[in-house]
Design goal:
Number of helices: 8
Number of strands: 45
Radius of gyration: 30 Å
Shape: globular
Distance between the termini: 58 Å
CATH topology of the largest domain: Methylamine Dehydrogenase, Chain H
CATH class of the largest domain: Mainly Beta
CATH architecture of the largest domain: 7 Propeller
Number of domains: 3
Length: 659
């Protein structure tokens, strides 16, 4: 048989532990199958012990590490080498478009398209084995070939994974998360805990006195107090040397006298943990066979005959299948209950806005068009071709747009677009004078790394630090030609550094969290607490430090409240806070690209992406507490966002732009 084509992804990170392939949409797609049970969300079944497939979708159970996935299209059944794989399953698959690609469970396509050579029904074979020693995850081979006749039901050809899983004893539901977390302190390797963690008060709701009495222990007050309770429940076993290992607890319902409704839920959950993955395989057989014969189930699933009856009993009880005499049929997912939300409308007086000027540095439209105003006239500077655009900066050389798929683009004042020689990723920063750009390039994969870059837009020079083998660095800002960045991971130290090209990075005495690029003011972590370090070097205690951001200039800080929308300004010299209501529909979030943009130390521009069908921006004149609005031209499209202007010196005034 002939291999028609293939696609490979060596670093596929499953979304919710599930590898997903889906049909690629095409205008020439054939209709869906007449069996509604084969839709991707048609039943309540999961992705199965290895994999299941249907009308335009295929799911593999992969857990969380990086996976290597190869997909192949053949013109007939390819050779089967069972000895090379630990798990092998075959299933029908229907392709409406004749092409598939890897995707995410909660998102769209992520990989290259694989042309299957035809539309309609296929047979697919999914093979799995562990990766080589030292590598994460598993290796997968997913093969497709045409099978236009009546589809044969799914069949598992080789199994090494467990088909049945241990019961859920239900203790977490009885004792609560925070008490179970104490058992993980002893049983899960690599969980860093601060000194004294066991002796801290037990957070959350403690277990009831009734439960503690039945187990013969006192109610715990600290985490260490919870150890005797965990031993009594069978979750921990003393190892004789002062430590503890994981126990094999009985069901909570067998040890405790619990309310009847709670006991029933826990017993059902215990059985579900055993059969839920194998039941998904059963539902796949039933959906494709519509119905399946009970006598065929054991052979198709490659499980012992004695497993079938309890499996069917569970699947019926969980409303996954319907059993009639000697056949089983898959049941559709029940509709969600329709709840009519109660909406309370509170009318408030909004601050008025008057017609004002366009955004000072221009905007980026929904399709990537960059529009600017020059001498009062609107002009199109250029266009950035990319799936996503994250933020845009005015620089001395033109407008830089951070975009997906690489280095971002700089459109110079003549309208010429060029890609930067370094990748600044999605969260770049710019110096206040518009000369420098910096960011952290990241590679996420089996061997992840990051790398800090600095770029001079006037000379087109770039500088880079060596790659770091982890994803731990983040750029805070640029001031006086130096890049400030932080390095830190969940369990390690948090270090701030200052890097000037031509020199090694210098670690700062105190970790830094915020930097104002215009003045150099900082929010730092001192030994006595969080402090704002002003431009004069004065240290001021920071109240609610993670709430505030610097206003350009470093003499004030700001924060937003959402309901109702308002802004608060903190004067660092006096410590006074001033509040100001904001017009409705202003986007107040920190998330680019529609986050607020400071044009000057006294004016800030808000996007209004949900203000009806308008493309309106609102400008707040802070000292006067006055507001202007400006409706962007129609070319702005859906969810445009403003370009962040140069804050120090003069922007590129007088530069020629295209009409």
């Amino acid at each position: 048989m002939t291999l028609l084509g293939f696609s490979e992804e060596d670093e596929y990170l499953p979304d919710y532990g599930t590898i997903v392939l889906r049909d690629v949409y095409r205008d020439s797609s054939v209709p869906v199958l007449g069996n509604d049970l084969l839709g991707e969300s048609a039943t309540n079944a999961l992705s199965g012990t290895v994999a299941t497939a249907g009308d335009g979708w295929l799911h593999c159970t992969a857990n969380d590490p990086w996976q290597a996935v190869r997909c192949e299209a053949h013109d007939g059944p390819p050779e089967l080498r069972l000895e090379e794989w630990e798990d092998v399953v075959e299933s029908p698959f229907h392709s409406r478009s004749g092409a598939v690609s890897l995707a995410l469970l909660t998102g769209g396509a992520t990989g290259d398209q694989l042309n299957l050579g035809a539309q309609g029904l296929f047979r697919t074979r999914i093979c799995r084995k562990p990766a080589e020693p030292g590598e994460e995850g598993d290796v997968w081979l997913i093969q497709f070939w045409p099978a236009p006749d009546r589809p044969e039901p799914p069949r598992w050809l080789n199994r090494t994974r467990a088909t049945l899983h241990p019961e859920n004893p239900g203790w977490q539901q009885v004792l609560g998360y925070h008490l179970i977390e104490v058992s993980w302190y002893f049983t899960l390797a690599g969980m860093p805990r601060r000194d004294g963690w066991l002796d801290e008060p037990l957070p959350g709701e403690p277990p009831s006195d009734t439960v503690c009495a039945q187990l013969g222990v006192d109610p715990p007050r600290t985490r260490r107090d919870a150890i005797p309770l965990l031993v009594a429940a069978g979750l921990l076993v003393a190892d004789g040397s002062g430590g503890y290992s994981a126990g094999t607890p009985r069901r909570a319902t067998e040890v405790l006298d619990l309310p009847a409704d709670l006991a029933a839920r826990l017993d059902a959950a215990a059985v579900r943990a055993v059969y839920v993955w194998l039941a998904a395989d059963l539902v796949s057989i039933a959906a494709w066979s519509n119905p399946a014969h009970v006598k065929d189930v054991a052979a198709l699933l490659a499980v012992p005959e004695e497993t079938v009856e309890p499996l069917l009993e569970y699947a019926v009880s969980d409303k996954l299948i319907r059993r009639e005499d000697d056949t089983v049929a898959a049941l559709p997912r029940p509709p969600l209950p329709q709840q009519v939300p109660r909406v309370t409308i509170v009318h408030r007086e909004e601050p008025p806005t008057v017609a004002g000027a366009p955004p000072r540095a221009g905007f980026v439209s929904g399709d990537g068009t960059v529009g600017v105003w020059h001498a009062g006239e609107f002009a199109i500077l250029g266009r950035v071709e990319s799936d996503y655009r994250y933020r845009a900066f005015e620089t001395l050389a033109g407008i830089y747009v951070a975009a997906s798929g690489g280095q971002g683009q700089l459109i110079d004042w003549s309208g010429t677009a060029r890609q930067l020689p370094v990748d600044l990723d999605m969260g770049p920063v710019r110096s206040a004078d518009g000369r420098y750009l910096a960011g952290v390039q990241t590679h996420v994969g089996r061997r992840s790394w990051d790398q800090v870059h600095l770029y001079d837009v006037t000379t087109e020079e770039s500088w880079s630090l060596p790659k770091s083998p982890e994803l731990t660095r983040r750029v805070l800002g640029i001031h006086d030609g130096a890049v400030y960045f932080v390095t830190g991971s969940g369990g390690g130290p948090f270090v701030a550094s200052r890097w000037t090209p031509g020199h090694e990075p210098a670690d700062l005495a105190s970790p830094m969290h915020l930097l104002d690029p215009l003045s150099g003011a900082q929010l730092r972590e001192e030994a006595w607490g969080m402090a704002v370090v002003t431009t004069s070097g004065e240290q001021l205690a920071a109240r609610e430090p993670y709430r505030w951001r610097f206003v350009p200039g470093g003499t004030r800080m700001y924060s937003f409240r959402y309901d109702p929308p308002s802004a608060e300004l903190l004067d660092l010299a006096t410590g006074s806070v001033t509040a100001c209501p904001l017009p409705a529909a202003c986007d107040l979030g920190d998330t680019a690209p529609t986050a607020p943009v400071w044009e000057t130390p006294d004016t800030v521009v808000f996007s209004q992406p949900h203000h009806g069908w308008t493309r309106r921006i609102v400008r707040w004149h802070v000292p006067r507490a006055e507001f202007e609005h400006f409706d962007l031209p129609e070319i702005a499209g859906y969810r445009p966002f403003p370009v962040e202007p140069i804050l120090a010196g003069e922007p590129g005034a007088g530069k020629p732009v295209r009409s």
